[in-house]
Write a sequence for this structure.
């Protein structure tokens, strides 16, 4: 039996336990209230405060924008014959990160349905090193229709393998147009970096290729077009449920060249089996009529990545087919330099048109025993400038060039653009070398011998006949010839005549406007030109080529030394390796009264300049006697539209604007030419 004290203690303990219970209950209640308050607050934050933001995010997860690459613009000749175009085909592609099993096993299994060649495997291996694992890597670029159909029914067995429709670039004339069209290639890390720096990356979303060389590179902005996009709704697995909106891509512009592909074919035929270059310009506009660099290459090999063996073969070929000799081949001009040197002599006042001086078989600098020989051992007696050009007297120019000196000579020669880029609408044009005291000091600045940096008066002797430090491109020589033939009215050489904008249905014309006028006397131009006419007449160095000419033509032969011949020795081509033999040059223009074509031809190691003259004559005959009437009919003024461009060529020539109706004639011809390309079958690769 409990005592009162024990009862009292028990009641106290019960009260304490009850108090502790209620305390715990209150703490639990408070915690529950706080917990629910936090949940409520978070709910309000997410559902009220952040409502708009999360709705947008949810929508973005559900709705995506898929970029669509634009169709690249085409390139056509003056008559609308297609030189570069696009065509659709199916491509077999692999996403390595999505594959099940080894990639080699997958490829081997695919061979049961598709013909996968060793070249395909080499290309795929190269792409794997460049692509990311989650990107689609082409295994076979162009599936045959039966291959695509056969594999499509079995595609469910190959996770990570896709058949995709792609647009491919093609150059139907292959080697014939390679050096001026250039080619496109896959966008590299270097290309992407440049696009990022220029804030152009957004224009290339969905695109895989970019212009790498030639017109494809120079006019990349115009040819590429603008991307479009599809706004699509996706399910939780990322599958497209429906297309909500489509904004079509804008097709790139079409480039229409000044060139008639038939003349290009003729120039290529004439240069067949040779090394060198031939370029023809319209002196009245600066339009390039023919552009041949031999040997050439097939640009189609580069579009989707050239394999290592083929690249090595092209790159190590001693004939250097990848070099664009028209704009990047640097050669001493030989005696084709003499008409321009003659202009310098006349304009400087060193001689007049009636000046006659001795032209012996050899000449020496006063006080020196060294003899500078003429190409004709007996010499030419005495000569004025006209005769010196006709017979190509070296001693005539040796003496007068030495006396005039480099300081007075160089500025006159520079007026013809020698030693400066012509500004043609092609990338990476070389500037050549017009020697001067300043040039030599800079060129040999690192020489420990002070005299090597100083101009020696004797160096002017070889310079005056187009040897020595003189080096120019065939394009520079053709440009200088066109400027001389045009009495000093200078036009910038250009490949592209018009740009056709399909979206705006407008044409932008690169309107030919003189860039400048050479400030020389008209009578001196006419005098030198008549001397060049005599070159193709009896007594001239190319008189056989001039026989039977139905029109007046002016020209100049040139033989450019590759190796120096020692004093007292004679040139013997048979004793020299082919690479050490002289180059053969010829420049020409016709008709003399109003020239329509100016030509420069160089045959590497081709011997005497007269060997190059027949090629220029044949090309001129073909253009003036066979194509000239057609060319005149095709030279109607096109209808340029208001088009913005960053190309300096277009900015310099001030493209003009014309209304839509006149576009239809060319558009119809262009559309018809896309169906049938005249002459294409003759040269397709």
């Amino acid at each position: 039996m409990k005592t009162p004290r024990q009862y009292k203690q028990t009641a106290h303990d019960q009260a304490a336990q009850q108090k502790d219970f209620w305390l715990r209950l209150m703490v639990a209640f408070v915690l529950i209230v706080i917990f629910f308050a936090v949940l409520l607050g978070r709910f309000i934050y997410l559902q009220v405060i952040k409502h708009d933001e999360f709705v947008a995010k949810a929508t973005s997860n559900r709705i995506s924008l898929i970029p669509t690459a634009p169709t690249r613009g085409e390139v056509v000749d003056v008559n609308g014959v297609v030189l570069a175009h696009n065509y659709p085909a199916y491509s077999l592609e692999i996403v390595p990160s999505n594959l099940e099993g080894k990639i080699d096993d997958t490829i081997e299994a695919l061979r049961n349905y598709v013909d996968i060649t060793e070249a395909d495997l080499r290309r795929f291996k190269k792409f794997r090193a460049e692509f990311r694992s989650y990107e689609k890597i082409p295994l076979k670029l162009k599936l045959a229709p039966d291959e695509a159909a056969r594999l499509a029914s079995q595609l469910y067995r190959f996770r990570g393998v896709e058949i995709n429709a792609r647009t491919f670039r093609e150059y139907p004339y292959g080697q014939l147009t390679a050096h001026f069209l250039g080619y496109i290639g896959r966008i590299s890390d270097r290309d992407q970096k440049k696009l990022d720096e220029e804030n152009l990356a957004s224009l290339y979303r969905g695109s895989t290729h970019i212009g790498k060389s030639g017109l494809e590179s120079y006019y990349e902005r115009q040819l590429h077009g603008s991307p479009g996009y599809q706004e699509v709704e996706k399910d939780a697995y990322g599958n497209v449920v429906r297309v909500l909106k489509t904004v079509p891509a804008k097709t790139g512009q079409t480039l229409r060249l000044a060139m008639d592909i038939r003349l290009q074919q003729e120039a290529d035929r004439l240069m067949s089996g040779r090394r060198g270059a031939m370029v023809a310009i319209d002196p009245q506009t600066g339009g390039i009529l023919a552009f041949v660099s031999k040997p050439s290459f097939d640009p189609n090999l580069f579009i989707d990545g050239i394999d290592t063996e083929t690249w090595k073969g092209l790159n190590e070929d001693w004939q250097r087919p990848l070099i664009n000799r028209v704009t990047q081949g640097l050669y001493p001009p030989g005696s084709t330099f003499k008409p321009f040197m003659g202009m310098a002599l006349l304009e400087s006042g060193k001689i007049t048109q009636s000046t006659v001086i001795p032209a012996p078989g050899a000449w020496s600098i006063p006080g020196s025993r060294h003899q500078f020989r003429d190409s004709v051992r007996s010499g030419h007696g005495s000569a004025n400038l006209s005769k010196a050009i006709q017979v190509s007297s070296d001693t005539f120019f040796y003496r007068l060039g030495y006396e005039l000196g480099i300081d007075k000579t160089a500025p006159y020669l520079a007026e013809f653009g020698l030693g400066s880029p012509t500004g043609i609408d092609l990338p990476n044009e070389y500037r050549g070398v017009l020697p001067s005291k300043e040039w030599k000091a800079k060129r040999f600045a690192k020489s420990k011998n002070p005299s090597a940096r100083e101009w020696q008066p004797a160096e002017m002797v070889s310079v005056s006949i187009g040897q020595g430090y003189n080096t120019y491109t065939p394009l520079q020589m053709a440009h200088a010839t066109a400027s001389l033939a045009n009495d000093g009215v200078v036009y910038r050489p250009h490949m592209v005549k018009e740009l056709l904008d399909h979206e705006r249905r407008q044409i932008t014309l690169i309107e030919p406007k003189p860039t400048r006028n050479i400030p020389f006397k008209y009578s001196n131009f006419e005098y030198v030109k008549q001397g060049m006419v005599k070159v193709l007449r009896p007594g001239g160095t190319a008189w056989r080529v001039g026989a039977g000419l139905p029109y007046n033509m002016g020209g100049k032969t040139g033989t450019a030394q590759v190796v120096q011949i020692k004093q007292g020795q004679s040139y013997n081509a048979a004793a020299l390796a082919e690479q050490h033999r002289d180059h053969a040059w010829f420049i020409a223009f016709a008709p003399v009264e109003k020239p329509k074509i100016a030509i420069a031809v160089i045959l590497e190691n081709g011997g005497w300049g007269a060997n190059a003259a027949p090629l220029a004559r044949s090309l001129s005959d073909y253009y003036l006697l066979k194509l000239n009437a057609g060319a005149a009919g095709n030279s109607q003024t096109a209808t340029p539209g208001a088009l913005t461009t960053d190309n300096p060529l277009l900015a310099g020539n001030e493209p003009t604007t014309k209304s839509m109706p006149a576009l239809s004639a060319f558009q119809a011809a262009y559309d018809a030419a896309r169906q049938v390309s005249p002459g294409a079958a003759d040269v397709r690769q």
Residues 565-572, 630-666, 673-685 have pLDDT under 50 and may be disordered. Residues 4-49 form the longest helix (46 residues). The chain is about 40% helix and 20% strand.
